[in-house]
């Protein structure tokens, strides 16, 4: 306790309304000298202040966005395909995750039950890139294997990264191209 008293004598005295508190902390697993924890409260009025505070703000430049349009697999009565829209920060998400996050239908009936959850091992998340292919990553080895007899514009949504963190633009995606009528 003598050590604690000498430590306390080195600390500045708090305002009379805010007493200094300390409590000994003993570790049951240790048989050595007890350690002491000291807590000091400084009243708000005693804290240094500035008459004209200037907040420090560091703004990051806006991240590039990719706008996406998803065409439905079947044309409506008027002959037009239904369109769903979404946007994403360039280079941060897979096409599959963007579609699921925005509740845009990705899988046909079989794929809803039997998909691999984005692991690239089933081939049920096929989409066709109608426009904006240059805003996506190159086909992966997994896609090369599953899509080797399919058109070059077909991709697996679980393997397709939208953007590259620097580009921005618009991508048009045909959902379930194998069902297109």
Automatic annotation (TrEMBL):
Positions of region (Disordered): 1-62
Required co-factors: [2Fe-2S] cluster
Low complexity: bias regions: 1-12, 35-59
GO biological process: P450-containing electron transport chain
Entry annotated with the keyword Iron-sulfur: yes
UniProt KW Iron-sulfur keyword: yes
SUPFAM superfamilies associated with the record: 2Fe-2S ferredoxin-like
GO annotation, cellular component aspect: mitochondrion
GO molecular function, one term: electron transfer activity
Alphabetized Pfam families for the sequence: Fer2
InterPro entries associated with the record: 2Fe-2S_ferredoxin-like_sf, 2Fe-2S_ferredoxin-type, Adrenodoxin-like, Beta-grasp_dom_sf
Keywords: 2Fe-2S, Iron, Iron-sulfur, Metal-binding
Domain 2Fe-2S ferredoxin-type: 114-162
Family: Belongs to the adrenodoxin/putidaredoxin family.
The protein, known as: 2Fe-2S ferredoxin-type domain-containing protein
Organism: Ensete ventricosum (Abyssinian banana)
């Amino acid at each position: 306790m003598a050590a604690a008293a000498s430590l306390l004598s080195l600390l500045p005295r708090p305002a009379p309304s805010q007493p200094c508190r300390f409590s000994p902390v003993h570790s049951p697993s240790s048989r050595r000298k007890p350690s002491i924890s000291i807590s000091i409260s400084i009243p708000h009025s005693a804290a240094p202040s500035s008459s004209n505070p200037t907040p420090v703000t560091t703004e990051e430049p806006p991240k590039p966005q990719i706008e996406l349009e998803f065409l439905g697999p079947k044309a409506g009565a008027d002959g037009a395909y239904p369109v769903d829209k979404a946007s994403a920060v360039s280079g941060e998400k897979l096409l599959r995750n963007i579609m699921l996050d925005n509740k845009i239908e990705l899988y046909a009936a079989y794929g809803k039950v039997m998909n691999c959850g984005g692991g690239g091992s089933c081939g049920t998340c096929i989409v066709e890139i109608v426009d904006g292919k240059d805003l996506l990553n190159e086909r992966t080895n997994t896609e090369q294997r599953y899509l080797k007899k399919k058109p070059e514009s077909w991709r697996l949504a679980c393997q397709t990264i939208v953007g590259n963190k620097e580009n921005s633009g618009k991508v048009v995606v045909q959902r379930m191209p194998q069902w297109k009528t």
